[in-house]
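#structure-requests
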Amino acid sequence: MVLSGLQDRLAPLNSWLFPRRVYLQLEDQALSAMVLEGERIAWQERVPLPPGLCVNGEPLLAEALGDLLGDLLVERGYPAARVKAVLPRAATAWRLIEWPGAAWPEQPELLVRQQQDELGLPWLLQDADLLLDPLLGDPPRSVLVAAQRTVLEAWIEVFSQAGVALDGLEALPICLWRAVKPQLGKGVQALLQLEPDQSWLLALDQGQPLGEWPLPGADDREALAAALQQWRQRHAPVACTVVGAEALVQELNELLPDWLGCPVLPLDLPGVEAALWGLAAGERVR
């Protein structure tokens, strides 16, 4: 009894002295959190956000959002946590870059910044932070991830207000790619993210990103079916994995094979958000 009481009293001190890794998925509507102990999920929770705190991927009320996040982590036993987070989809954009001349450039970021018009990004490159990751294969290609600098600074302010150490922010499509990559086979594979108002399709070829397409929401089945049938005529997927709200996935699971012309496979994850698992996987493979 005495030992048990002592452990209870020491628990908050241990949390401060040895902060745990917390993975967060940031969205306009909610925050999703996950803590792992090895491969076991020690904590997972989705917390709805009041309207107006975050809009189009940007935190508009950083102080209020930071206080909410800080209080949540303290209440769940993770004060002073070290956090890695998935940014909202609207906060980032990505493109595939095929380097001219079939050779790696000496100054890749400078070359990218000279291609502002061709990239068609939602912001000027001078207002964005860029990340270039090389891809395997030939010809030489890279994934360009861009984030608007003011939005990044606003999220950094949120975590500062929450009193946690921010170790990294990552783009949602990259985390989804990393989550599904271990179960990919050969050929073109699709990852379909179903949402009521807006769906997204991420395609991978031989395990490497091929592109991403916005689609109608799952609530408009006729439009979604037409868009998927049109997409499959160009890319001929061999399999598709579906993520999203469980109810939506179950409703459409029997229809999707006909719309996509390929089998629909379950995502082999231990009951966790795909993006969060992909975020954590980024550390496990290093």
